[in-house]
UniProtKB/TrEMBL annotation:
Gene3D superfamilies: Hemimethylated DNA-binding domain. This is Heat shock protein HspQ. The keyword Transport does not apply. SMART domains: YccV-like. Residues 19-118 form the Hemimethylated DNA-binding domain. Keywords: Stress response. GO terms for molecular function: DNA binding. The keyword Nucleus does not apply. Transmembrane segments: none annotated.
């Protein structure tokens, strides 16, 4: 009996990808740090520089074999773009609108408070 590696796709031998928990337009908050944001892109596994990853303190450094999310993020003081592992995100159920200046270029908030990708009409 062989042990199946949960990080390898047995069909292709490559890395196994998990289904991302959050989709484009999802409003999320960080599990530890006081910021929230909206997902505008998803990487199925870590896709940033090794220097970036190593700069995270080892005690809280996330695994690379999980989805990573690009967020238009904000905290009480500022707005920025964040790159966050799935293990560190939770759904934000506050219903509060986000204020990030970049949201209007990518998303429209409907009457129910849901953010939808803005239609990109050709010029």
């Amino acid at each position: 009996m062989t042990h199946q590696d949960t990080n390898t796709d047995q069909t292709t031998g490559g890395p196994a990808f998990r289904i991302a928990k959050f989709g484009i337009g999802a409003v999320v908050r960080h599990r530890i740090y006081p910021f929230r944001g909206i997902v505008f892109d998803v990487d199925p596994v870590f896709d940033n520089t090794e220097d970036w990853w190593l700069a995270i303190p080892e005690a809280v450094r996330p695994r690379k074999d999980q989805p990573f999310y690009h967020l238009l993020a904000e905290n009480a003081e500022t707005e920025y773009v964040a790159y966050v592992s799935e293990q560190n995100l939770l759904p934000d159920t506050s219903g509060e609108a986000l204020r990030h200046a970049g949201i209007g270029e990518m998303f429209v908030r409907d009457d129910t408070g849901i953010y939808r990708v803005r239609d990109r009409a050709p010029n």
